[in-house]
Amino acid sequence: MNKILIFIVIFFHCLSSSLDFEFSSFVQNACILKNGIIKCAGDIELKSKYQLKKRGVTSFKLGSGTGCAIINDNQLKCWGYPGNKVVLNQPKKNKGYAQVDVSRLHACAVKKGRVNCWGIDFNGFGFTTPPEKLRKVKKVFTTDFNTCAQLKDNSIRCWGADFTGIINPEIKKVKLLALKSTKACAINIQSKLRCWGIDFSEQERKKIIKHFTGFISQYEVNQIAIGNSNICLTSLSGRIKCYGNNDYGNLKIPSDLKRVKKVLIAGPAHLGICAQHLNSFTCWGGRKNWSQKVTRYLNNLHH
């Protein structure tokens, strides 16, 4: 009897943990990953003709009109606008990839501890060219003009445009890292939050640290999400705390919000926030009726 009960618990945990979601950059797309299949709603480019029609997807990321996924045999596959350089220049030898990230202009993926990047290297900033001797990478992060890698010893290396201020991180070893445009935030192995980049003044950095200090000391943080004007942290226990601009009600987190598994902040065209729960989604804030529309998109895709 106990063996049957354990099997049932594991089975339903696997079903719930297979749920994930992403937004595309700038265009109004929302996609979910459920039981190995990606489903999208919103603008046409990722909804129908250019949607990935594959089973066995284990993880995915969206860029601007494009997406890349890891399929269960560690196969990398990118899709979207046929003329997009992320789609056109994706690696022909696409087996053996462990993780991928996608920005507006480029994508990078980890294979056997090394980073492979492709797409458009805008203005020759070099964000698609990893350092030659970079090894032992466990995760890669992309943003508009930069790329960062988290190594197996939890140290980070960043490259690309100098002007963003991202390539000189103020933190040596990290547990969590997030990038957005010209911003970066990380929690180090001592559970201290640090943010850097040209969009953060020294005063703003101090405000951010003060705002989240109590949350970080009380809960085990498992995610950092950065938007154009907001930052959110989530905990393993399902709590969430956000900071930043409240012009569109982004700091008015619903009082009846269920336990949060993941949070995403939409791009500059919409600016809202969405949370994933065990079996549903909730969005709030954003311009016009964005939150109602995307909440409906995500929950309709799931059910």
The low-confidence parts are 1-16
Q: Give the biggest beta sheet.
A: 3 strands, antiparallel
Strand order of the largest sheet: 1-2-3
Q: Any idea what the shape is?
A: globular
| Helix/strand class | alpha+beta
Beta content: 35-45%
Helix-strand topology string: HEEEHEEEHEEEEEEEEEHEEEEEEH
Fold and architecture overview:
With 303 residues, this protein is an alpha+beta fold. 18% of the residues lie in helices and 38% in strands. The protein has a domain at 201-303. It has helices at 2-17, 44-47, 85-88, 202-218, 290-302; strands spanning 20-23, 29-34, 37-42, 57-62, 66-71, 75-80, 97-102, 106-111, 114-119, 137-142, 146-151, 156-160, 174-180, 183-188, 193-196, 221-226, 230-235, 240-244, 262-265, 273-276, 281-284. The strands form seven sheets. Strands 1-2-3 form a three-stranded antiparallel β-sheet. A three-stranded antiparallel β-sheet has the order 4-5-6, with no helix packed on it. The longest helix has 17 residues, at 202-218.
